[in-house]
Each structure stands twice: as structure tokens, then as C-alpha cells.
Amino acid sequence: MSTVAPLHLIRPRQPKPEWLKVKAPGSENYLRLSKLMRGLGLNTVCEEARCPNIGECWHHGTATFMILGDVCTRACGYCAVAHGRPATLDLDEPRRVADAVKVLELQYVVITSVDRDDLADGGSGIFAETIARTRALSPGCRIEVLIPDFQGKADQLHTVLDAGPDVLNHNTETVPRLYRKARSGGRYSRTLELLQRAKAYAPHIPTKTGLMVGLGEETPELVQVFRDLRAIEVDILTLGQYLRPTESHLEMARYYTPDEFRALKAIAIELGFGHVEAGPLVRSSYHAHEQADSLAHAASGACR
After folding, report:
1. Please, what are the domains in the chain?
2. What average pLDDT does the structure give for the chain?
3. How many whole angstroms from its chain centre is CA 45?
4. Which H helix or E strand runs over 161?
5. Enclosing H/E stretch for 67
6. Which residues face 109 on adjacent strands?
């Protein structure tokens, strides 16, 4: 027989503040892009992770492609992407992504993936092929990759870097204290090691990472992560609000205000990041092309 929790033990859901409310998607360009994705059998992290910015981004004809299928081998407590045993590897996926980039005439594209710990190369070969095919069809398009940690295997990271992405992104997600409950299979030290290896192996490729806030972290913990990231010369940092996808995901501790995001951004800039994108609705690939442009502009100014 099922039981009902006493009312005094039920935590009321926090009302969403005005600064997190977005218009429901439905523009003509959004519908066109959605139809194209379905026709090519492609996945996007915009949909799978239930990104609140999907209406804005798809309206402007930009999307983040999610390769290696739509089932992740890890079960991170904050992530809406399905987890379990992935299907057989789709070897035609790189061609379809490249075709979509060409049809959409994109000038900047972000390519990410689920974790594929079941694959011998962690999916790094598919990343490399997707970059190569996209370059061949759309030579003017800049390519950012948001990669998994490849279980700390340097050769798999090198496979992706050798393909020549314009930006190498791997998300830190949260502070070390919260890794055990938030990141299934992830390690804070492994994240730092990956970003450090990327900078050492391909110093000409900017490195980027992102953090969520609202999981129960404290400001000093965030600032220490900023310091750790700058110590390994990470170039771009994104900060956004964690939003609980469903009741089965990690609880959200609190909402950060726009003023708090501005304060955190000021601290990060002071520590030396080339570009910081911070705000309640910021996600790792939100305005990604503008982030890269800002970094390039700052670098060119420093060289004068």
C-alpha cells in the first residue's frame, strides 16, 4: 500500500523568479530547424538537456549538436539526458551533422556528446571525423567541441585536438565537495587534468569550461575553483543557474540573483579569464560564438 508523506515534510517548490521566465519556442525558424533535425535523425543537447534557451537559439539558427547517440553511460544527478546502455554506434552521424551545418549555413557550431565509456576510444574518433567532415563542407565555419572526460585518457583527448577544433570545452560543472553526488563517474582532479593537458598539447586552441550554481556551493568554494582554472590557463568561463529537470534529479538549493552573477563575473574577470559569460540563463554553448569573438578581440588587443 502506498503512503503519503506528511504535509510538514513536503518541501514546497520554489517559485521561478521573473528573470528565469522565457518565451515558449515556436517561431518559424525554430520550427524549420526542428524539422531539419528530425529529418536528418540528429540529436541536440538543446532538446535532450531541456535547455531554457532553445527558443532563442533556434530562432537565430544556431544549435548544439549532440553526437554518439542520445543515451549516456553515466547518470549525473543534475542532467536530463537519458542514461543506460547505448545503442550501436552510428557511423554515419558525422556526415549528417556536417550536412546540417552546411544546410543551415552556420558560421559557428558547437558539437558535444553523451559519455560513451562503453567504447574503446570513448567516442573520440567520431568527434574527430565530425570535425573533419564539417570543415570539408563548411570551411568558413568555426567549430567548438564540448567533450566528455574520456576517463582521463590522454590519447583520446589528443585525437580530438589533432582534428583542429577552434575551441576545446569541457565543463567543470560544480565545486569539488559536490562532485560525489552530482557527477557520476566524474572527478574534479580529472577535469583539471584534461583542461591542463589540452592547453599543453595544443596551446593555440582556447580552452573553456562551465559551472552551474544553485546546488549548495558556497562563494569561497566557487572562487577557489576559479583560481584552480586560471592556474591551468583556462581562457573562457561560463556561469549559469542550475534548474532541476525533474523531481528525480538533484534538488536545487537556491536561485542566484542577476546581481550575484554580476559579482561572480567581476571576480572571475579580475582573476584573468579572457572572457566570462555569467547569468541565470547562461549555458555552456549560449552565445558561444560571441564568447569566442570576445576572447579573440581581447587577445588581439593584448598583442598590440
Report:
1. 25-303 (3.20.20.70)
2. 84
3. 8
4. helix 154-162
5. strand 64-67
6. 143
